[in-house]
Amino acid sequence: MQPRNMSMSGVVDLAAVKAANEAKAKAEQARAQRQDAGASAAPASPLVIEVTEATFESDVLQRSAEVPVVISFWADQAEQSKQLNTVLERLAGQYRGRFVLATAEVYANQMLFQQFGVQGVPAVFAVLAGQAMPLFQGLAPEDQIAQVLDQLVAVAEERFGIVGPEVDPGAAAEPAEAAPPRPATPQELALGAAHDALDAGDLPGAIQAYRNVLADEPANVEAKIGLAQAELLQRVEGADPQAARAAAAAAPGDVAAQLAAADLDLVGGHVEDAFGRLVDVVRRTAGEDRDAARVRLLELFEVVGPDDPRVVAARTKLARVLF
Prior knowledge:
Region (Disordered): 166-185
Strand content: 5-15%
Family: Belongs to the thioredoxin family.
Order of helices and strands: HEHEHEHEEHHHHHHHHHH
Protein name: Tetratricopeptide repeat protein
InterPro entries: Thioredoxin-like_sf, Thioredoxin_domain, TPR-like_helical_dom_sf
Keywords: Redox-active center
Number of helices: 14
CATH architecture of the largest domain: 3-Layer(aba) Sandwich
CATH superfamily of the largest domain: Glutaredoxin
């Protein structure tokens, strides 16, 4: 990653979330009210917050009129994104309030993920006065990240007159009073029921539950992954791994045998073997056989996760075979 030449090019349209001018006006009004009430006596704002779709307006849009807000999109399955969050949290303390870090887990905040046009995680954006700009994507050395943050702080002051108030990192780390949990939505309840069925080994029930979720919300990433996992476990249930691999070795042209062996490879932790086997089947076949192998490979990609480097490498190999 090279330090970004900070400009307003590449600004993300946040109109679908909230009009930027309205957010800025509300924030300025709130800031004035706090100053009238004696804001110096108020507790310091947290330097690191976890943002959700429900809190995006107050935690990011409104706050961005007073201090640069850096948003880090991350996923539990992407180890690099968790490593990057650790670096950003440390820098937030060092910058002492010149920016606020907001972390957003992509699977729990798919609307934000789509609105920002995130292509993969980790991905980092900044919001200034209700306007968003991409900063960088991927893990980078801490000194390079600091250079980008220095540019962000300079742009915030020079172009928007925004200077974050100095905050004591120790005071900011004090836990705030927990907000009452919000009621789960019907979609969340349905997804929870699907997870429970999968954990209990009720594979038919889990498959149907995940399909129900996807019928209402086709883009739900968590449900897609859960469905792929449940279907994989159902396919290998009761299978004899040694016999399946022997059958695949004896009949390289038997597509069904290769699909079965790939499933067992993946369940056994031999991820690259599973992917390589199916890419080879796609290369050697045509028509319905090729489609069957390609679809199965895409299903296994869902199980492992789109950000896994083994999936990225296998996608590249598949593209070369297909095109």
